[in-house]
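U., I forgot to send this yesterday:
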Amino acid sequence: MKREHIMISLRDITKWFSSGSNRTFVLRDVTLDVREKEFVSVMGPSGAGKSTLLYIIGMLDTACEGLYRFLDQDVHLLNEKRRAELYKDHIGFVFQSYHLIDDLTVYENLEIPLLYKKFSVAQRKSLVCDMLDRFKMAAKKDLFPNQLSGGQQQLVGVARAIISSPKLLLADEPTGNLHSTQGEEIMQLLTQLNREGMTIIQVTHSDKNASYGHRIVHLEDGWIKN
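Result:
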């Protein structure tokens, strides 16, 4: 793999939660670079800080200490509005708990990232229909999330994360609620997207899923163990 530009640079990222005078550390001095077009797998036991790391990279959470550069911007110095704009413009996120909007249909959930990016009505319709076909969900397009199985909600979550072709895809246990065949298809899809140039960071408990990445980052008690 040729040397690509560094997309993500984390330096001494530390995150804690305070309870009275006590601090519970979730991440400790995490230093990590991720290059454009890399596919990185993050592994570690429950409570290691994997999801917190993903949320900080995705600008949905902030570190207590440390420096974070994303696409040559100092994220730790940006206000909330600018971070939200960066997220909408460049990042797709597959959440472990789906995060679908309950009172929107499958079609409307898929359309949301496109509304942020000012796609035309015709473009939105075309892209949503492509995703519905790709994920074999066309018959479900008018259903609401609570009318879908967990696996179907997960597929909609993956489709929504990639529909606007983000530069960076963050995936928190992307196959956690899928049966093995569906899970295999999702990992093949992520591999294909990565080949096409999308940078991917996935959190996974699965050695098999982790092996799809170019490298594995091990987290334990908030520390990187590599």
